[in-house]
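User: Just a sanity check before I run the rest of the batch. Below are the structure tokens for the first item. I only need the designed sequence back.
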């Protein structure tokens, strides 16, 4: 297991997206109430022209406002959102529309690393995905990688894990049943793998009997 806090986020982002091509921009003084790790993320992510997120959206600092004691800073295309409580700024809360948000096990610094790696699995130079992988195949699929010991969140459903290697990031979670009520399909996993070097995915071609959807980043 890899300690999440041992991951150097600026170094990882540079290795994944290339060298920064913009000057750093930190939120201005009127946003001083935002948690320090979140301000650090805005400053760090401002250095790339290329978006660092594609499956969730980080709100701009000026869009963050208090509602019922919580401030939503990130959301997905559906009803899920993430928020913080200014009275406890290191805590992150996760919720869905019309539901009371719950505190996640990860504090802000770990959460932001988790989110960056989760997004990387979907924003690599080349990607492979399969939503129905027999769990018995996971060992060989994930052989080059090591799991990151994140404390966990519920998105998109509980049970997702992150695995990494030098040029690879994999997001692995439960596979869905193909019928309502869309529970977890026993014995199967959903696997999404991104890479910064397409050659690092070639080993998957030697694993027969797997149907991968292949894609690549389009600038």
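Assistant: Here's the designed sequence for the first item:
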């Amino acid at each position: 297991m890899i300690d999440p806090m041992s991951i150097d986020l600026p170094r990882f982002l540079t290795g994944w997206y290339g060298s920064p091509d913009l000057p750093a921009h930190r939120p201005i003084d009127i946003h001083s109430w935002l948690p320090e790790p979140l301000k650090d993320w805005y400053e760090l992510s401002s250095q790339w022209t290329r978006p660092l997120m594609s499956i969730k959206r980080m709100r701009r600092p000026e869009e963050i406002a208090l509602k019922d004691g919580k401030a939503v800073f990130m959301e997905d295309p559906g009803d899920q959102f993430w928020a913080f409580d200014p009275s406890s700024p290191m805590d992150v809360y996760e919720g869905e529309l019309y539901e009371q948000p719950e505190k996640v096990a990860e504090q802000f610094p770990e959460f932001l690393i988790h989110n960056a790696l989760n997004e990387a699995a979907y924003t690599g130079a080349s990607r492979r995905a399969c939503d129905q992988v027999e769990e018995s195949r996971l060992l060989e699929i994930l052989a080059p990688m090591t799991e990151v010991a994140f404390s966990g969140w519920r998105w998109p459903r509980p049970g997702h894990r992150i695995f990494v290697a030098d040029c690879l990031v994999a997001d692995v979670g439960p596979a869905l049943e193909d019928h309502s009520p869309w529970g977890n399909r026993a014995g199967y996993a959903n696997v999404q793998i991104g890479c910064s070097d397409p050659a690092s995915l070639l080993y998957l071609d030697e694993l027969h009997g797997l149907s991968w959807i292949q894609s690549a980043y389009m600038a």
